[in-house]
Design goal:
Two copies of one chain form a homodimer. Chain A is mainly β and about 400 residues long. Chain A has three domains: about 110 residues, no CATH class; about 130 residues, Methylamine Dehydrogenase, Chain H (7 Propeller), CATH 2.130.10.10; about 80 residues, Beta Barrel (Thrombin, subunit H), CATH 2.40.10. Chain A has one helix and 34 strands. In chain A, the strands form nine sheets. Chain A has a four-stranded antiparallel β-sheet with strand order 3-2-1-34, with no helix packed on it. Chain A is globular and about 55 Å long. The relative contact order of chain A is 0.11. Chains A and B meet through helix 1 of A and helix 1 of B.
Chain lengths: ~400, ~400
């Protein structure tokens, strides 16, 4: 009888502790702990940590995308690892080493394909988002036996991906309707050494930054016959004697209704261009060399963080006045910022102080703080619903 | 022993069938069954129905918003009922009769407050989104002992709501930081009989349509000191002899990067205005009197449905050419359209044929169909992350 009962108890116990807790996933997100190879799973309604997931390898330059149901996160590690995490159970479901060195990824419009961009050996790979099975391997050959690093990989509407070839000086538009045999349209001679790129939130304008020369390359996906145009011809590092402490990310551009605000390379300025003409409208002097220039979802504020030695501070730009309205000392090593989907709060990684801070964006007040081990990227599940992130 | 065992079995059974199934909620949504007082809970990854929830009263003009975690839907019924549904368990958690006749609602930026707009007795009420407890009742008095119907209620950034007074000819901006004692800023003499309104997706421009005269009233929430401006002064019913089969909804305006596309009242045209100057740019002739003019999330296509007797057809406008590209016969009674968040598909209610159809937006092909009893509004949970819906 005792033995019988204990069997029953075990059964009840395992049934009453389901691996995954039912809850809405729209307010969830992850925080990369770069030094540990781990991520925290958090939620933004009560600002709490739910789980820590370990064993993700080298996350020193990691990013993430989310499944269309906002249940799973896909984490792209620097070491070429692609990891799939279940947000509801806080478990690492699968991890594949897909390359020697990777630089980021994207998820297709329909949520079925994960694309990963690789430095080593170069090229892009497509994976099934359910199984992480390899669907195709697209080497980035730009000349006989020359393969390029790929950068600036983003998803675009109509089941496309777009990326750039660093050594190849090209932009490739990948049609993934048949992910085992993708079609590629190539745009050559777009400028020297594209090093990163962004796509506008409507998925129309793909803009690649150039390392080898000044200016940027713009591809209008609605009008491919126009080819790649050059914009902001004087954008880049204009003083060779001045050091660049950190090359700014292009995904850290803020595109508002009227303006693009973006970091000047190696200078203490945020640049403002008119989004219709791409003419420079203004330079806004800021506290340091800007890294991320991020728009609050409504576009009313733009938050800026900085390269060393100014990475303890953020500034907030008023986009109507196009001027800095607030300077905030946060703490050492502010690496990344992520707004809640409707913009009432922003989460900041403060790497050197091993914490994440949460500020209200209207009053600028600290709302909460979570301990985190050397936090870097913060990614909320709401990204699942947006193109190009 | 038998009795003891059966008790254990019951306990196991109830534990092994949790009320709510764990799953991601980002791909979920609801469909209003207007004649039955019921809603279907669906998901857009496999295009399936998960539950039917009954007992929601008169849903003949119903709308819905979602909690910030995308777990709960709040349904606003025509009869003044406010219903809270759990998407994960498919159950009606709570229902309050909050007025005699209501016209829609909104959820605050932080997700904590539900606002409902009422015809009878008029005014707006605020509720706690967890408990549905009444927080405050704001009668819309515009003159001594005169109370107005309220229309065009939307949420706005910084914990605000905006709505219009139909008889009062006013726009009210409600600050809900303290929802038990909200502050109200009133804009008077905005034009005769505002009948509906919209807010731009960034939460900046509130535009009210006028029933009593031509033109629209625009309030720039970033520049309140400018007051209410009049735009598109000739917009309205311009031929008094021509019948208007259905007054178009203002939330059925499509705002792309460059243009606003919106239904002409009582005419077979979609109008196009420049979003910076609000000057009319073009009239696009269409198949019938347009009702909803809805932009695909990327703005590349705009889908239009029509009033009787043309409500069996939709047309798709190419927003680069500003011309109709496709005319599709769907079936009798196309009442509403909802795009998946990243725009790869659109769901259409076909009321008179008791079904919902799902089309791919790139190829225009039918991807699926679900039976539904007199379906009207379709609302996807991704709305949780957007302002003003």
């Amino acid at each position: 009888m005792i033995k019988f009962l204990s069997l029953i108890v075990v059964a009840v116990f395992s049934l009453s502790l389901p691996a995954a807790e039912p809850r809405g996933t729209g307010d969830m997100g992850i925080i990369i702990e770069r030094a540990n190879g781990s991520v925290l799973i958090i939620e933004t309604t009560h600002n709490s940590q739910l789980y820590r997931v370990e064993g993700l390898g080298d996350l020193s330059h990691a990013s993430a995308v989310f499944s269309r149901d906002e249940r799973h996160a896909y984490v792209f590690g620097r070491d070429g690892g692609l990891s799939k995490i279940d947000l509801l159970s806080g478990t690492l479901l699968k991890r594949v080493m897909q390359a020697g060195n990777s630089i980021g990824g994207a998820i297709s419009q329909d949520g079925k394909i994960i694309a990963v961009s690789n430095y080593e050996p170069g090229g892009v790979k497509l994976f099934d988002s359910t199984s992480l099975e390899l669907l195709s391997d697209i080497p980035a050959h730009y000349a006989e036996s020359k393969q390029s690093k790929t950068v600036g990989l983003v998803d675009a509407p109509n089941q496309h991906f777009v990326f750039s070839l660093f050594e190849g000086n090209q932009i490739w538009l990948l049609d993934a309707h048949n992910p085992k045999q993708p079609k590629i349209q190539k745009f050559a001679d777009i400028g020297l050494q594209p090093y990163d790129a962004l796509i506008s939130s409507n998925g129309r304008f793909y803009i690649a930054g150039l390392f080898g020369e000044e200016g940027l390359a713009l591809l209008d996906l609605w009008q491919l016959d126009k080819g790649v145009q050059r914009i902001l011809p004087h954008y880049g590092k204009d003083d060779p004697k001045k050091p660049v402490y950190k090359m700014p990310h292009l995904e850290g551009w803020a595109l508002t209704d009227d303006y693009a605000l973006f970091p000047a390379v190696g200078r203490n300025d945020v640049l403002v261009a008119d989004r219709r003409t791409w003419q420079l409208v203004k330079k806004i002097p800021v506290y340091g060399q800007p890294v991320f220039v991020m728009s609050r979802p409504d576009g009313r504020q733009v938050w800026v963080n900085f390269a060393m030695p100014n990475n303890d501070t953020v500034q907030i730009i008023d986009t109507l006045k196009l001027a800095v309205m607030t300077t905030k000392k946060i703490g050492k090593g502010v690496l990344h910022m992520e707004f809640t989907p409707r913009g009432e709060a922003v989460w900041l990684s403060v790497r050197d102080e091993d914490k994440v801070q949460i500020y209200g964006t209207e009053d600028g007040q600290l709302r909460g703080e979570l301990p985190a081990h050397k936090p870097s990227g913060i990614f909320f599940a709401a990204r699942a619903h947006q193109s190009g992130l």
